[in-house]
């Protein structure tokens, strides 16, 4: 363990007034808990939970109340912090404790939920750490965390710069950089930033507060200020500021349910069933269309994909909902006096060696029931989304709107596949305006040829 980590341990081991001084930490923990409450998690289930950097148990207390049947592993780099939490929960058989550096995880089992509040800013290589931590998630498992972001301690940074002093506080990444740290091929994640202003009486009280919670450790690159320099900066702080700014980033990452893609279209008859067949054949995947309508007109997309992709019967999963009229699931179900509710349907993808290709019905906002749309089914299935778009006139509007809706719902997008006659101008415009990658272009075909699949495999391999 390097000297920087040793300093962190020493600081937190000696943070004797943590509970009394951790005002901002308490605010962030409450934000994180409220964030967790909105997630698609069954709180009554006996899930496995890992907490990284428990401190004195501010978050632990909320978690044990929120998940009464869960099995917990509570960790911290500080022995004394772990001892303090142990005193509170020593008689709880569902809680195990471990002294552990979150950047050097040594665990053999995986978890349904990993949580961490204001510990990641102490990591020396957060990007690499997030790769290791998310690798511990079970399929559909969540990582929910908070960390300080770039604008934290902005007032102090300005004062140090004005006085030509070496900045003593930690430096933190901005939200865009944090976004780039998520392992996109493993799952989908997002960050949302919030500014918290904490009033302080004076600069001395602020620095004492950091010491009380063990948060005063500087980086190994820090050059200590002289007593005169420090007094000058504190005096300027007292004169110009009565507060300190924290930029807190709340992060959520969900591991994909399995390998594969969810295929959606920008509008009707855009070719998503044909593209689904191409993906099924190229990846030797299992195909599933959870909601099928229009069976009075033809034998359905499942059979079409099976014929086009030449798959075995065991590579086709029957629909959960099969309706006769060629309408939206909501409208078709009403005609058959069926009441749909996606919360009562099982969208679980079983573990298998093959990837999945899951095809939606229509586009992202096709109605399923009152206040339920195809986009919510995508969240349940939890696979990266492939958008199938036309190449003809009108595709820019439809495609960009689809991209925007998916991003607003924090649904990861693998990319776009264009179906139709080649149109380089539309391809370039979608990539530029949508800030998105084009996976492949599929020409109009009646059959899927081996020659096309050989080329198609090369195009999709970077996204899979």
Automatic annotation (TrEMBL):
Residues engaged in binding Mg(2+): 273, 359
EC assignment: 6.3.3.3
Binding-site residues, ATP: 269-274, 359-362, 447
Keyword Ligase carried by entry: yes
Record's subcellular location: Cytoplasm
Residues bound to substrate: 293
Cross-referenced Pfam families: AAA_26, Methyltransf_11
UniProt GO molecular function: ATP binding; dethiobiotin synthase activity; magnesium ion binding; S-adenosylmethionine-dependent methyltransferase activity
Top-level taxon in the UniProt lineage: Bacteria
Pathway: Cofactor biosynthesis; biotin biosynthesis; biotin from 7,8-diaminononanoate: step 1/2
Record-linked Gene3D superfamilies: P-loop containing nucleotide triphosphate hydrolases, Vaccinia Virus protein VP39
Methyltransferase found in the keyword field: no
Keyword annotations of the record: ATP-binding, Biotin biosynthesis, Cytoplasm, Ligase, Magnesium, Metal-binding, Nucleotide-binding
UniProt cofactor(s): Mg(2+)
One GO term describing the cellular component: cytoplasm
InterPro entries hit by this protein: DTB_synth_BioD (IPR004472), Methyltransf_11 (IPR013216), P-loop_NTPase (IPR027417), SAM-dependent_MTases_sf (IPR029063)
Domain Methyltransferase type: 50-145
Active site as annotated: 289
Biological processes per GO annotation: biotin biosynthetic process
Known catalytic reactions: (7R,8S)-7,8-diammoniononanoate + CO2 + ATP = (4R,5S)-dethiobiotin + ADP + phosphate + 3 H(+)
Family stated for the protein in its record: Belongs to the dethiobiotin synthetase family.
Role this protein plays: Catalyzes a mechanistically unusual reaction, the ATP-dependent insertion of CO2 between the N7 and N8 nitrogen atoms of 7,8-diaminopelargonic acid (DAPA, also called 7,8-diammoniononanoate) to form a ureido ring.
Subunit (UniProt): Homodimer.
Record's protein name: ATP-dependent dethiobiotin synthetase BioD
Protein's organism: Commensalibacter communis
């Amino acid at each position: 363990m390097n000297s920087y980590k040793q300093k962190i341990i020493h600081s937190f081991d000696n943070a004797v007034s943590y509970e009394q001084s951790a005002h901002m930490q308490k605010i962030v923990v409450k934000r994180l808990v409220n964030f967790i409450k909105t997630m698609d998690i069954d709180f009554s289930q006996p899930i496995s939970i890992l907490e990284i950097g428990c401190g004195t148990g501010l978050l632990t207390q909320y978690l044990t109340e929120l998940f009464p049947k869960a099995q917990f592993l509570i960790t911290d780099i500080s022995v004394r912090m772990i001892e303090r939490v142990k005193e509170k929960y020593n008689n709880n058989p569902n809680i195990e404790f471990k002294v552990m550096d979150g950047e050097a995880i040594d665990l053999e089992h995986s978890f349904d939920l990993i949580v961490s509040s204001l510990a990641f800013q102490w990591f020396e290589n957060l990007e690499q750490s997030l790769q290791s931590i998310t690798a511990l998630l079970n399929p559909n498992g969540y990582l929910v965390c908070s960390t300080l972001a770039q604008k934290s301690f902005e007032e102090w940074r300005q004062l140090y710069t004005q006085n030509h002093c070496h900045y003593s506080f930690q430096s933190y990444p901005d939200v865009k950089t944090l976004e780039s740290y998520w392992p996109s091929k493993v799952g989908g994640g997002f960050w949302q930033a919030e500014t918290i202003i904490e009033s302080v009486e004076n600069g001395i009280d602020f620095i004492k507060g950091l010491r009380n919670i063990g948060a005063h450790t500087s980086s190994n690159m820090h050059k200590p200020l002289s007593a005169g320099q420090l007094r000058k900066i504190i005096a300027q702080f007292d004169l110009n500021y009565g507060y300190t700014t924290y930029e807190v980033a709340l992060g959520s990452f969900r591991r994909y349910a399995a390998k594969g893609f969810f295929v959606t279209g920008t509008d009707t008859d855009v070719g998503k069933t044909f593209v689904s067949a191409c993906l099924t054949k190229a990846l030797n995947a299992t195909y599933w269309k959870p909601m099928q309508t229009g069976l009075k007109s033809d034998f359905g997309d499942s059979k079409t994909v099976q014929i086009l992709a030449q798959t075995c019967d065991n590579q086709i999963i029957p629909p959960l909902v099969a309706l006769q009229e060629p309408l939206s699931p909501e409208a078709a179900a009403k005609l058959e006096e069926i009441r749909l509710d996606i919360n009562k349907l099982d969208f679980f993808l079983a573990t298998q060696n093959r990837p999945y290709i899951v095809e939606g019905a229509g586009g992202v906002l096709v109605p399923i029931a009152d206040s339920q749309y195809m986009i919510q089914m995508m969240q349940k299935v939890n696979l990266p989304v492939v958008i199938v778009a036309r190449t003809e006139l009108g595709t820019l509007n439809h495609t960009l709107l689809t991209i925007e809706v998916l991003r607003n719902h924090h649904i990861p997008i693998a990319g776009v596949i264009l179906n139709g006659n080649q149109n380089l101008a539309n391809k370039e415009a979608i990539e530029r305006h949508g800030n998105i990658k084009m996976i492949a272009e599929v020409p109009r075909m009646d059959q899927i040829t081996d020659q096309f699949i050989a080329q198609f495999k090369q195009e999709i391999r970077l996204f899979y």
